[in-house]
Design brief:
Distance between the termini: 38 Å
Number of helices: 8
Number of strands: 6
Strand content: 15-25%
Helix content: 40-55%
């Protein structure tokens, strides 16, 4: 009898997969399945976020972007928003305390002006103390891709641009410091981008999974990476 050979899991990634972006969806539903408040899902989602970032870094991924809080998420119940903001504040404190250990260079993508001065100061400090580290972690916060593109156009106009190239727009985006994502992963089962990295996603590969964010584990990440390497990226060519 012939048996199908087990597919070899990619041990570490190469230059073809430098940047993975995650739409971290499903925290609330994860909590609801357990008859717990939605805030409980965000707490466990935050715990898994740290595990996923660490594992992707160990695999050799150089840039990771996560969709933490969109411009539309302010419409959620106040207690849920407050819980997310508390988790964010705690994460910034933890990240700054362990910058050297984790070797993470932090960037926050989005309009930070809506946050109170103490939160903006924390964000600025986190970016400053981590600026010389290697692994880039982008946290999209109060972020919307359409707003980002409009902001980039405004920056270019204010800089005196009267004609604009694609390179100009890219240079004025929040992600100007890094390459575009090679792979965008959305958990939670929905098949849409939800206003995330619309410009940067032009040639990204997409992976959608029904797995809720707190349940995304190392085994599935390996599966996702294997799937990425099985695809042929043509960039409009043959």
């Amino acid at each position: 009898m012939f048996f199908k050979k087990k597919k070899q899991t990619v041990a570490t990634v190469d230059e073809r997969l430098k940047h993975i972006a995650f739409i971290m969806d499903g925290n609330g539903r994860w909590a609801k399945k357990r008859s717990m408040p939605r805030e409980f899902g965000h707490v466990n989602g935050a715990k898994n976020f740290k595990k996923v970032i660490r594992y992707c870094g160990d695999k050799g991924v150089k840039i990771i972007t996560v969709y933490a809080f969109s411009t539309e998420n302010w419409k959620r119940p106040k207690n849920e928003v407050d819980a997310i903001m508390k988790l964010l504040s705690d994460y910034i404190d933890d990240a700054v305390a362990m910058v050297d250990e984790n070797n993470i260079q932090l960037h926050f993508l989005g309009d930070m002006s809506i946050f109170p001065p103490e939160t903006r100061a924390k964000i600025a400090n986190a970016e400053e103390v981590s600026k010389d580290k290697t692994l880039i972690l982008n946290i999209a916060l109060n972020y919307g891709a359409r707003a980002e593109i409009a902001h980039a156009c405004e920056v270019l106009i204010n800089n005196g641009k009267t004609a604009v190239t694609e390179e100009d727009v890219s240079s004025a985006l929040y992600t100007a410091h890094c390459d575009d994502p090679d792979l965008i992963v959305r958990t939670g089962g929905d098949l849409r981008l939800s206003n995330f990295l619309l410009w940067q996603a032009a040639y990204a590969e997409f992976y959608f999974t029904d797995t809720l964010w707190p349940d995304l584990d190392e085994r599935e990440i390996d599966k996702i990476i294997d799937e990425f390497y099985s695809r042929k990226r043509r960039y409009g060519g043959l």
